[in-house]
Amino acid sequence: MRSAVKKTNKIASGTGGLLRVGWDRLAVAVSDEHPDALSCVKGFRCAYDNLLRGKTGYSRAARYVNDTTGLQVEETYYPRYEWLPVGRLTFVADDKKGLWRKEIELVLKHFNVRRLLMAEVAFDFAPESRVDEAFVRKHALFGRARRIPKRHPNILYYGSRRSRKFVRNYFKQRVSAYRVELQLNSGWLRKHEIKNLDDVALVPHLLFERDFSFFEIDWPRLENRFPRNIYCAALLRRLKGNEHDLDLLLRSLRGTLGLTNVRRLLKPLPINGVMESAALNCAARWRRGKR
Question: Where are the domains of the chain?
């Protein structure tokens, strides 16, 4: 019993064990042009600074790398369209360390930050957690984001790059964990009034309201909605044949049966509480300026 409690606490800590939660990428819009400002920040070197061709929003792109911390900063500047921000900075974390708020602030003090454009949070599930592609396909629900056809054989996608939320699920070799990556774009951030680095700490709490949880179908409750006859029994058997795929099953309930509020037929899994605790711990570390 005592070992089980220790195991649960280790998961909920978000700092190791079966689940690690961290910030993977962050993008901000800046309102001034400082193409060489990052070269003045201690520890950073310029990996490249290239002219962009084709139908891109910006004329130039540069990448700066901190070899000590592993942080990469991608800078795009000289916009081709008036409606675009003057520049865009994208912070890309080292896979094992995650983003560190203090390091981001050291970079941003050289710019006039306009607003946040994107925040990406990563949930890394160790193999012992038994969370893998089959588990995500069977139990994961990402709000209104629907699964889209595979572009890569080993990655599950929900939503799209241009939607409010874009989710990637895949095994991350470098951290030896199955990663659930939620890319929260500007539409999602504006809806929840996430405007600056302080507000980023609110994201984990908002995520678990409607945007990311694991569920299973409450079959007894669903069966009670139908009369007991041969036709309904065959229909339920056909639905249970899709039990391995929650997204497909919910589409069947909406389309075939005409049900609108299918969430009332879902039972949350216990792992949701563990995930939320780990995410809130990640938010607390962000507030304190720790990794």
Answer: 2-215+267-288
